[in-house]
Amino acid sequence: MREFLIAPSLLSADFARLADEIRDVTAAGADWIHFDVMDNHYVPNLTVGPLVCSAIRPHTSLPFDVHLMTTPVDPLVAEFAEAGANVISFHPEASQHVHRTIELIRSHDVRVGLALNPATPLSVLDHVLEMLDVVLVMSVNPGFGGQAFIPHTLDKLRRLRVRVDATMQRTGRPLQIEVDGGVKASNIAGIAAAGADVFVAGSAVFGVSDRAQAIRSMRGELATVDEGLGFAAAK
Ligand code: DX5
Ligand code: ZN
């Protein structure tokens, strides 16, 4: 049985009231807090860094899922580990030495994710998949919240599901597939059936006043997913 997790992205929260927003989605039933870090260099937007991460960390006990959209990556790892990150994901294009960056994150006792842009092929995973805890599949181009889900992501997820299942069988270690961008109640079931375990949702959660209702309706849709069919379709 796969466990489905919902990770609201703070990018769409009210930045003037971040602590309240975090408490609100925690009470609303979120599983992880997704923390988007943008540097106006790797992506054309600028958000927040480790200082804000550590400032809001005391306001929830949920895992912090830090998504680095920055280059370089390595100089930020220690600070985010210190700031309370539980997962740190980075983009392979943003690191000169992907294998080294994975080892660096792991050395801080933080779970490691590799983030794949819509045009990044699954082949970047060839020599590192067994080292990862999370594969973060971008279903929009990184940089902004509120974009539309790119449909070809579903095919990518199905192919990735097969590889991830085979890898987990071989290693006996858990490995999660996370999807990020344009996820909402109306498409979440199809995304889950294609193979995702963790669902980042920014505007679909923070863009509405009743966050508990938003998360409940996503969970309602997820409950309809026939995983068996999803796996069969993936194979
Ligand atoms: C985009 C970010 C996403 C974003 C998702 O670069 O990585 O996490 O916040 O927002 P929605 O759910 O609105 O597409
Ligand atoms: Zn993100």
Automatic annotation (TrEMBL):
PROSITE patterns linked to this entry: RIBUL_P_3_EPIMER_1, RIBUL_P_3_EPIMER_2
Domain of life (superkingdom): Bacteria
Signal peptide: none
Protein keywords: Calvin cycle, Carbohydrate metabolism, Cobalt, Isomerase, Manganese, Metal-binding, Zinc
GO process terms (BP): pentose catabolic process; pentose-phosphate shunt; reductive pentose-phosphate cycle
Active site residues of this protein: 36, 180
The family this protein is said to belong to: Belongs to the ribulose-phosphate 3-epimerase family.
Catalytic activity, as annotated: D-ribulose 5-phosphate = D-xylulose 5-phosphate
Underlying gene: rpe
Annotated binding of substrate, by residue: 9, 67, 143-146, 180-182, 202-203
Function per UniProt: Catalyzes the reversible epimerization of D-ribulose 5-phosphate to D-xylulose 5-phosphate.
Pathway(s) served: Carbohydrate degradation
Organism, scientific name: Paraburkholderia antibiotica
Protein name, entry field: Ribulose-phosphate 3-epimerase
Lineage of the organism: Bacteria, Pseudomonadati, Pseudomonadota, Betaproteobacteria, Burkholderiales
GO CC, one annotated term: cytoplasm
